[in-house]
Amino acid sequence: QVVLQLDKISHAYKNGDENLQILHNADFTLNHGEIVALIAPSGTGKSTLLHIAGLLEKPQKGEIIIQDRKSSRLNDRERTQLRLNSIGFVYQFHHLLAEFTALENVLIPQLMARGSKTKAVNIGRDWLKKFGLGHRFDHYPGKLSGGEKQRVAIARALVNSPKILLADEPTGNLDEKNSEHVFNLLLQVVRSEGLTALIVTHNHCLATKMDRIVTLHEGKIIPCHL
Ligand code: ADP
Ligand code: ADP
């Protein structure tokens, strides 16, 4: 079952006189339950691809189909709704709000999407526990380690139960040991929740733990064999 499909996507940036063709008739399919690694050199367009796949940026050409819905047929409000319901984002930097506790940070998407606060609190606690943070609910980000902050950010991305996780070097700012620990936890949770994920990484060792690896080459998304 196809969860996300990119159909003949083209996207370019203008840099003065130069035309930076990031994607050129690129096709890509994410099947239900798949975890795919995206590896490509800096500046080739990995972040652009994730933003396009995640409906944060509109491609200049092509169609994005998420759970059978063609995004080009949606208005802005519908597109935002589809994104909020279907996609979780994790970035290299945690982007936690310093003045809120770990639990409050995780609750923000829940409170935006749903009504009941009690229910949201329980769901938020459950997600923090899945990431080994049952003892950190009331800690502020300033009191958490780098690995813990990133785990809170991942829990926040998943709290609304999106079908798809898009992660841009989710452990890229951690040291090797922490990176491996947090990454393993991320993969374990994605698998046990039956989620589908596209994860950018520079780490070949981590990439080989995923179901398949793709790269960007001449504007296309192609299989990559390490
Ligand atoms: P990666 O994530 O692989 O490093 P990006 O998607 O961030 O690549 O960027 C790809 C290329 O497009 C880079 O050369 C970057 O400088 C350029 N770029 C990204 N966003 C813009 C933009 N909004 N306007 C112009 N150029 C951009
Ligand atoms: P730290 O608190 O050292 O910055 P984390 O917050 O990522 O690291 O990790 C929290 C807990 O996970 C700590 O008890 C740490 O010892 C443990 N841990 C870290 N890396 C690993 C690993 N690779 N395997 C198992 N446990 C780990």
Write a structural description.
There is one protein chain. This protein is α/β, with parallel strands linked by helices. It has a six-stranded mixed beta sheet with strand order 6-7-8-3-9-10, sandwiched between helices. The protein is built from seven helices and ten strands. One adenosine-5'-diphosphate (ADP) is lined by residues 13, 15, 20, 22, 40, 42-48.
Please outline what is shown here:
Helix content is 35%, strand content 28%. It has a 6-stranded mixed beta sheet, with helices on both faces.
> What value does the average pLDDT take?
96
Distance between the termini: 27 Å
Q: What spatial order of strands do you see in the largest sheet?
A: 6-7-8-3-9-10
How much helical structure, as a percent, in the residues?
Answer: 25-40%
The gross shape turns out to be globular
Poorly predicted ranges (pLDDT <50, ≥5 residues)?
A: none
Q: Count of DSSP helices?
A: 7
| Strand residue percentage | 25-35%
Small-molecule binders here are: adenosine-5'-diphosphate
- What is the alpha-carbon Rg in Å? 18 Å
The structure class reads alpha/beta
Quantity of strands, as a count: 10
Element order, helices and strands? Answer: EEEHEEHEHHHEHEHEE
* Largest sheet composition: 6 strands, mixed
InterPro entries: AAA+_ATPase (IPR003593), ABC_transporter-like_ATP-bd (IPR003439), ABC_transporter-like_CS (IPR017871), ABC_transpr_LolD-like (IPR015854), MacB-like_ATP-bd (IPR017911), P-loop_NTPase (IPR027417)
Protein name: ABC transporter
GO biological process, one term: protein localization to outer membrane
Family: Belongs to the ABC transporter superfamily. Macrolide exporter (TC 3.A.1.122) family.
